[in-house]
Amino acid sequence: MDKSDKKRIVLKIGTNVLTKETNNISRGKIEDIGQQIAFLKEDYEFVIVSSGAIAAAKQFVNLETNGKEITVKQALASIGQPHLMRIFQENFRELGLLTSQCLLSYSDFEKKQSKKNIVNTINVLVKNNYIPIINENDTVATDEIKFGDNDKLAALAAVLLEADLFIIATNTNGIYTKKSIEENKLETIIATTDINSLKKEVEKSISSHGTGGMLSKIDAAEIAQEATIETWVVNGLKDNFILDAIQNKTNFTKITVK
Length: 258
Hints:
Layout: E1 7-13, H1 15-18, H2 27-40, E2 44-50, H3 53-64, H4 73-93, E3 98-104, H5 112-127, E4 130-136, H6 143-147, H7 151-160, E5 165-170, H8 178-182, E6 191-192, H9 195-201, H10 214-226, E7 230-235, H11 241-246, E8 253-255
Parallel strand pairs: 1-2, 1-5, 2-4, 3-4, 5-7, 6-8
Antiparallel strand pairs: 7-8
């Protein structure tokens, strides 16, 4: 089944956005995302790549194990993933939105048949008004920890699914210039095609809850750019961040195609 006539957005949501920089998954933020998708659904179709399974586990695991500590990240992801999906499902359902879970591994993008299956499945889901929510199959893989909070996974998904736009929701107003960070006068790089210049502007910083710094987001944008897909790096902590970006009412970074 092929794509529809709607514009396809692959939306990657980082852990810091989903938790609103706390230790708990924010139902309010998930509701905010759902409200925007509901508002835009006539013109846009969404595929979500969500981090946050480990954060969700940390929120619930002490309650479920009488305080026993679990530190293995794959185990935490296994515990947290159904909690995370339940929170998405409950909040989206109240808005009339249907959700589905898709667990992928990096190896899936290396096999011709697996890639075909992913595309066919997600196209069927979207055609039937389900919003696919993709996460890495962390239970059997450690790549998410290595590659940075699902940024690369989201970029590979955007390319495979022939997205019209790739949005990375993070906790900054896009990518800042190095000079403005050093001077504590934050200035957003509004638009560029030059990936190498962006890499020079950022440091290898790791966020407090997720595993992806800004460099991993630029690497993801580079994957998308090579497939002629524009990437937007937006501040997902703000309400209505998707709508405001589409309407150009907020500062964010566009990494445009060459």
